[in-house]
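Retro notes, item 3 of 5
We never archived the inputs for the (3R)-3-hydroxy-L-norvaline complex last cycle. Fixing that now. Sequence and ligand:
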Amino acid sequence: KILIIGANGQIGTELVKALRNIHGAEAVIASDIKSPAYAIRNSGPYEIANVLDRDNLHHIFEKHRPTQVYLLAAILSAVGEQKPKVAWDLNMTGLLSVLDFAVEFKVAKVFWPSSIAVFGPHSPQHDTPQYCVMDPNTVYGFSKLAGERWCEYYFEKYGLDVRSIRYPGLIGWRANPGGGTTDYAVHIFHEALKTGKYESFLSAGTALPMMYMDDAIRATITLMDAPADTLSIRSSYNLGGISFNPEQLADEIKKHIPNFEMSYVDSDPRQAIADSWPKSIDDSYAQKDWGWQLEFDLAKMTADMLVNLKTII
Ligand code: VAH
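Structure as it came back at the time:
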């Protein structure tokens, strides 16, 4: 049985679908703080889970005895800066409860997403390596950095098989992002199709590591399926994806929607967050340990996003 906590989020929605396709609907219990999103409700078991309520979480572990747990519930970078203590509390309490219950109920594997947000202004900005100076200056970033330390600690101390990926900004059409800094790269596609124009909250030259959701989900499942003894990283694996800035994304969209108009706001708090993050990531450990290979470059992602988004908006 696979338990997914945070099933209604940008990653959760896609992981529930992918894992139910592989293991069958009944094998995957989706859970989130709110009642199920329509698409998930009608496709398999669902629980209301509140990562701040230890008894509620404990009850779900006791009832379902999951063999794998994916903890995806978190407050992301931009929203985290609006409510820093809430973000720290939710991101850390949720992880520590899940790690404890995973040990208590002998869960075979745990997945927890980290982010390129664990890097900061003094980290190398290009081809950022797996190991380097990390001085994240967002609550989200340092909660993910602290979380990575806890994951490695539970692996070393209790032998818990916790696995993690430092995701770049994720772009997908099935579910929207919630409260991040890279969300512009999803909103732009919706606006390009609906209104033909988009006002970006990041400046034209702001390059960031990004990844198409299909690649991110495939990477997650590949990592989770890898033999434990092939994994040399128990904090969280760098994952690079594609590096582009808003102007480059707009130019790619214009190849499909020639009249698309891009504009830029003159200031937004998310610009400072983006400026503190790497422009590109070195993911040689993922390539070496579990054979990672990217499939979607900017052109392929843009074409796939537009073709699919058109069918649902
Ligand atoms: C955010 N989408 O923007 C997340 C992600 C690398 C960015 O962590 O906060």
